[in-house]
Amino acid sequence: MIEIKGLLESSLIEWEGKIAAVVFLPNCNFRCPWCHVPDLAFEPERLETISFSHLKRLAKTQQGWLDGVVISGGEPTTHRKLPQFIEKVRKLGLPVKLETNGNYPALLRTLIAEKLIASVAMDIKNRVDAGQTLYDKSCGVKVDIGKIKESISLLVESGIDCEFRTTVVPGFVDEEDVKKIAELISPLTKKYILQQFSPQHAFKKELRETIPYSPEVITKMVASVRSLIPEVSSR
Ligand code: SF4
Questions:
Q1: What spacing in Å lies between the alpha carbon of 24 and ligand 1's midpoint?
Q2: Which InterPro entries match (predicted)?
Q3: Can you give the pTM of this predicted structure?
């Protein structure tokens, strides 16, 4: 069974309008230079494993108060047994939201078709119209952009509650890139979130010295795409 490597007992921000526990699963197939959870993603053996019974107890003691469970990572879809894991979580009586980098559309399709997940948040690391190199640079590995596009289309066509997110990192994602991403997803979605970059624990040491965009710059980015996506926000 998949090991749980982190558990946030309650969050008000990961699933809009809900109080959710957040479960962190290990491993990731990307190597984003700004990844803020490198231990979890690349060296999970260094982290303690949290038993599933801990989550079970939480669901029981917080019954009627907890609205759902967000499954995050790392990248949850790197685990082939994710459907079985989600099934187990759902048996606790809680709906599941999945956070993903969108690299495995086939597994995403299964999860949606089998109605295992109620909501999805997908990271879009950069614009996909500028060719492979830019997306690869942002992910730190070679990525099949076709799969990223397939996941975006799949999420929207399925009608599942979904949101797209981009972490805005100086030197990687600027206002023009945000506009291009918004143009791509605007006919398809209403929800887009720009995430502030957190340098302290960045995977690549050189990024730990990078100064994040100021709140004013991020507010300007949000404003610049509001006409395309009304429900754009930042955090
Ligand atoms: S930030 Fe990138 S490398 Fe880190 S967990 Fe997310 S997708 Fe993986």
A1: 12
A2: Aldolase_TIM, Elp3/MiaA/NifB-like_rSAM, NrdG2, Organic_radical-activating, rSAM, rSAM_sf
A3: 0.95
